[in-house]
């Protein structure tokens, strides 16, 4: 038989149910909280690179790559097309002025030079012969002019005699006219001979000038050939290190082909290049920094190529310490060209995370140091040491500078 439950009993039963449900709810919340702490990613602080933001000056730079080259380098080319006969030095040897490097086959060139010398001697003989012939013709004409002058003097004397005889009645008018005609004819013939003599002198001088010019050209060609022969005896022009030599004996080389290179390996320069988008920021005289590992060498832009090739511009940096022990020919370097200065800027250390001005999602250490918080940050210009912070980070805050790509889905990371 059922008995009626009192109100007191009912209240106790209801209270127990509510307490049980509340306990289950609290346990669920605690479990969720514990699971959240277990699921939220965490990281050890020592495994990442962290930099502290501060305030200071940034020398804005544009970056590129460089290649260390000898400050002085001379390429020796073959002055003629020939063959390599002997090699006297090897790459890496130290050489002084006049040190023989290799010998070229000069037989055909020497034969040609001797032939040119013989031709010049023949031209000089031809000139001498022409001068003798000209002198002979001029002497003959001068003699003819003198004879004609004497003949004209005789005709003038006869004309005077006929006029005198005609004046005293012993002559006739016809004889006077004949004498006058003979004098006029003699004068014309004398003038003709004098003009012929003058023309012959001009022709002789012109002919001799042509011969002299021909000889002068031949002598210049011979001098050039002699200089080529001297250059073909390949020697070092100065004290340096032989960095390259064509040591293939018997190999044919063409005129202008590189056969040796000498370099001064005690002093260096840096040949740099960067995208032509920065061409307006690179100018002769600009300050530059060359990084070799942790070494930073100061320099000055000494030359800029006026045209870009393949989307890059080339330039040369003259180093203040061009004999630094870290410098090696062919060494690849990073180069930075200073183009502006920003004073009193918020800045963070430069790192591979920075790829250029713009917005970034960076992790910042929380105020209590217990977690890393994702934050949108705007970065500006940079140099090889610092990056300008436009917004998002205040001086004194610590920023993660390591690659955090694997945490791109997390807004908060616990610090273990």
> Quick check: average pLDDT?
84
Helical content stands at 25-40%
- Report the end-to-end length measured between terminal Cα atoms: 66 Å
Percent strand: 35-45%
Sketch the topology as an H/E string, one letter per element.
Answer: HEEEEEEHHEEEEEEEEEEEEE
Continuous helix count: 3
List how many beta strands DSSP finds. 19
Residue windows where pLDDT falls under 50 for at least 5 positions: 32-38
Question: What structural class do the secondary elements suggest?
Answer: alpha+beta
Question: What are its keywords?
Answer:
alpha+beta, six-stranded antiparallel barrel, 3 helices, 35% strand, 416 residues, 37% helix, elongated
Can you walk me through this structure?
The protein is of the alpha+beta class and 416 residues long. 37% of the residues lie in helices and 35% in strands. The protein contains 3 helices and 19 strands. It has a 6-stranded antiparallel β-barrel with strand order 3-10-13-12-11-14. Strands 7-6-4-9 form a 4-stranded antiparallel beta sheet. Strands 2-18 form a two-stranded antiparallel ribbon. The longest helix is centred in the N-terminal third of the chain and has 61 residues, at 107-167. It is elongated, with a radius of gyration of 51 Å. It starts with 6 loop residues before the first helix and ends with a strand. Residues 32-38 have low confidence and may be disordered.
Q: Brief overview, please?
A:
The chain contains three helices and 19 strands. The protein has helices spanning about 5-40, 105-165, 175-230; strands at about 40-45, 50, 55-75, 80-85, 95, 100-105, 235, 240-245, 250-255, 260-275, 285-290, 295-305, 310-320, 330-350, 360-365, 370-380, 385-390, 400, 410-415.
